[in-house]
Automatic annotation (TrEMBL):
Organism lineage: Eukaryota, Viridiplantae, Streptophyta, Embryophyta, Tracheophyta
Protein name per Swiss-Prot or TrEMBL: Protein PHLOEM PROTEIN 2-LIKE A1-like
Domain of life, source organism: Eukaryota
Organism: Cocos nucifera
GO molecular function, one term: carbohydrate binding
Positions of transmembrane segments: none
Length: 160
């Protein structure tokens, strides 16, 4: 509706829960300068190798414009010599009322290298309060995965 600005919300990797994220055998952290209005320095994790991939986060509805429609998007990059993405990842969005939606995505398998790409987790309408959770899971526990970089998760207006 008119007359109100619907803001984006960015959740940076250090504010995500990344399984084994602080173990340098599995993840390597790099500094990245984001070319935005404020030229923000962020740390981004590069996946060296894991077979259990789990990246989770949350935010509170109070940070959003009530009744506006939003979508949650992981912004990621595949690097050269990537490996292990033949299996889908599961993207899940959980609402404060306990409901959740999940979708399986094969997008990482065919993603071009060295380009930031978006993985849409799902969309929702903002309500008054409560935490929204989201996750990216590589739930085939026997296959090693390599060479994924996570830039941030964006919660942005979903214009239908």
């Amino acid at each position: 509706s008119f007359g109100r600005e619907v803001k984006d919300l960015f959740i940076y990797p250090r504010d995500l829960q990344i399984s084994w994220g602080n173990d340098e055998r599995y993840w390597k952290w790099h500094w990245l300068l984001l070319k935005s209005q404020d030229y923000k320095d962020i740390e981004v994790p590069e996946l060296l190798q894991v077979c259990w991939l789990e990246i989770k986060g949350k935010f509170n509805m109070s940070q959003l414009t009530p009744h506006a429609r939003y979508q949650v998007v992981f912004v990621v990059m595949m690097l050269e010599s990537r490996f292990g993405w033949e299996h889908p990842v599961t993207l899940t969005l959980g609402m404060p009322n306990g409901s959740s939606t999940s979708r399986r995505s094969w997008e990482l398998k065919n993603m071009p290298v060295n380009e930031w790409k978006e993985l849409v987790v799902g969309s929702f309408t903002a309500s008054a309060r409560g935490d929204v959770t989201f996750s990216l899971m590589g739930d085939d526990k026997t296959h090693w995965k390599k060479r994924l970089v996570v830039k941030y998760v964006e919660v942005r207006p979903a214009y239908v």
